[in-house]
Each structure stands twice: as structure tokens, then as C-alpha cells.
Amino acid sequence: MRANPGTLVRLFPLPTFSWLSLSFTLILPLLAVASAADNIQVFFSPNGGCTEAVVANLGRATTSVFVQAYSFTSTPIAKALADAKKRGVDVQVILDKSNITGQYSSADFVAHANIPTYIDSKHAIAHNKIMIIDCKTVLTGSFNFTKAAETGNAENLLVIKDEAMAKVYTANWQAHLEHSQAYDSGSTRTAKTANPRK
Q1: At what angle do helices 50-59 and 75-86 cross, to 10 degrees?
Q2: pLDDT at 100
Q3: How confident is the model over 27-48, as a mean pLDDT?
Q4: Radius of gyration in angstroms for the set of CA atoms belonging to the chain, rounded to a whole number
Q5: What is the spatial distance between Cα 51 and Cα 131, in angstroms, rounded to a whole number?
Q6: Highest mean pLDDT out of 8-22, 23-37, 149-163
Q7: What residues are annotated to the active site?
Q8: How far is it, in rounded angstroms, from Cα 120 to Cα 126?
Q9: Top-confidence residue, 105 or 19
Q10: Confidence check: pLDDT of 31 > 50
Q11: Domains of the chain by start residue, with CATH
């Protein structure tokens, strides 16, 4: 014997809700995620646009660029930093102590572009890879600022446009600058203790 659909509804009543409220319940969180994603860009390498994203964001810098990097040998990125400095942007770079060598290093590469360069030797490895642009945008991820990272390695880069997050990263950058030393490109050793710009 077949059950009458109406009987089934009476036996197992469906919860009372409007389809409109259900739609909003399901869609609003997705809209919130989409809105947040508008402030975040993701890039991957090899050859996924990481270097181009870094250069493009540096090209929009107007006041400051603070960098922390383990290694730095990307010519396009170094040129973009040098160009920013020529525009009057406050550009400063902190690198790992592995760059203090008797040979040409990442520190020389950046310092020769007349960019204030510092060495963070307090840690086993200063392995951060970040750029803070205009205290509004943070670039971070596994992506080293090198040609190898762009063309050969599997890396990722996030571009985050968020002033609150940039403020946190800037405070951490300043903390590392406090214990870093100015790099002397004419020597294999660091120079006097840096005079951090507050």
C-alpha cells in the first residue's frame, strides 16, 4: 500500500523555515570569504608569476618598503627596489648571516643598489621572506627573491592587502632590525651596529 505524501509530512514534519532564510544562511558566509579573498592574491612557482607580482607591487610603493630575506639574487626585484628608492621610497633590507662571505653575496647584490642593508645574525637562520609595502601590503610565503625560486623551485607567494596585518609584520621587522648590523659591502664582516629608523 502506498503512503500518501501528505501522511508522510504529518508523520515526519519538516522543519519550518523559509527558503529565503536558508539561502542567506548558506550564501552569506561564502560572500564573506569572497570579500576577504579580494584582499589576497596567491602565486606559485616555477613560472607562476611570483616575480612579476613582487615587481608590480614594488612599482606601486610610495612611502616605504621593508624587506626580510634569506637570499636575494633576483635582478628584476633588485631593480624594482632600486627604482623605488630613486622615487624617494624608504627601502631597507634585512638578510641572513649566510650572506657574510668572501665572495659576492646577496647582501652585496642589494647594497650595490644603494639600499641600506642589514645582517640578522641573532638566529640560527633568518629565514623570513617578506616585504611590507607602505605599511599596507604584505608579501610573504616560501618564495625567495631569487631567479631559482621563480624558474626552478616549487614555491608560493601571498600578497595580502591588510593594514592591521602589515602593522604586525612591521613591528616584527623593527624587532629584527634592532639586533641586526649594517652590512659593509667592502668587507666580509658586518660594520657597526645599525641605527634603526623608527
Answers
A1: 0
A2: 80
A3: 70
A4: 25
A5: 13
A6: 149-163
A7: 127, 129, 134
A8: 6
A9: 105
A10: no
A11: 48-193 (3.30.870.10)
